[in-house]
Specification:
It is built from 9 helices and no strands. It is mostly helical. The protein is extended and about 70 Å long.
Length: 235
């Protein structure tokens, strides 16, 4: 008699839903896990769902739930930083050419201001006779640092909150113009040839900023809306 047909092997039964790792173990998790989520993850599961952080899941299965929570928290921070970096690239890429030049000039202006301070105080000790020079230098350095941070890291949330809450004038035409004119006029008080040159460049740049912001009212309005959103997000 012919041999009986051999039945094909049966597929292994699908893992039960409680064998799947919890959602907070996803590499794209939006927030760190809560204590209840960590406790509920100790189920001895053996399957890995798509997108789950393998290391965090292995830590859960081995009982190291604290380590898993730290791994997921790290992933959350990394993903948020990556998202902000991508947002910055997208916004910089879509800026008008004149606006990009303005940002570059502002960064250069801030660096030159700091250079003027260093050049004036180089080798000079603080005494009662030059205390006013040190006060002026500190103001110039602080204003230059503010402008530098605004143009370089102002898109990051923690910096945007600080700038929006305390230095909202940077987002308006008149406020920006007044701030930059004041800063560069103060530089003249340093009394060196280099300081005079920096002040001249800075005053020219101040009017260039005002011109660009008025020529592109839509971008200026967007900048003010982003400032308002950042300020409201902190509260």
């Amino acid at each position: 008699m012919p041999p009986a047909p051999v039945s094909p092997p049966q597929a292994a039964p699908a893992a039960a839903s409680n064998d799947a790792p919890p959602a907070w173990l996803s590499d794209a998790a939006s927030s760190a896990p809560t204590a209840d989520q960590i406790n509920s993850a100790q189920s001895g599961a053996t399957t890995i769902a798509g997108g789950v952080d393998q290391r965090a899941w292995d830590q859960v299965k081995s009982g190291d739930t604290d380590g898993a929570a730290q791994t997921v928290a790290y992933n959350v921070a990394r993903n948020q930083a990556s998202a902000q970096a991508n947002q910055m690239k997208a916004e910089l890429g879509s800026l008008p050419g004149a606006w990009k030049v303005m940002k570059f000039m502002n960064v250069a202006n801030a660096i030159l201001c700091c250079g003027a301070v260093v050049e004036r105080l180089n080798g000079e000790s603080l005494t009662g006779n030059n205390a006013d020079t040190y006060v002026i230098a500190m103001y110039v350095f602080a204003f230059a640092t503010l402008l530098f941070c605004y143009e370089t890291v102002g898109l990051f949330d923690f910096v945007a909150y600080l700038l929006a809450d305390n230095f909202g004038f940077l987002y308006t035409v008149t406020g920006r113009l007044g701030f930059m004119l004041m800063t560069n006029v103060i530089i003249i008080s340093l009394g060196t040839i280099f300081a005079y040159c920096v002040a001249g460049i800075g005053i020219t740049n101040a009017f260039y900023n005002a011109g660009v912001m008025m020529y592109y009212p839509d971008w200026t309005r967007k900048m003010m809306e982003d400032q308002t959103a950042a300020a409201n997000g902190k509260r």
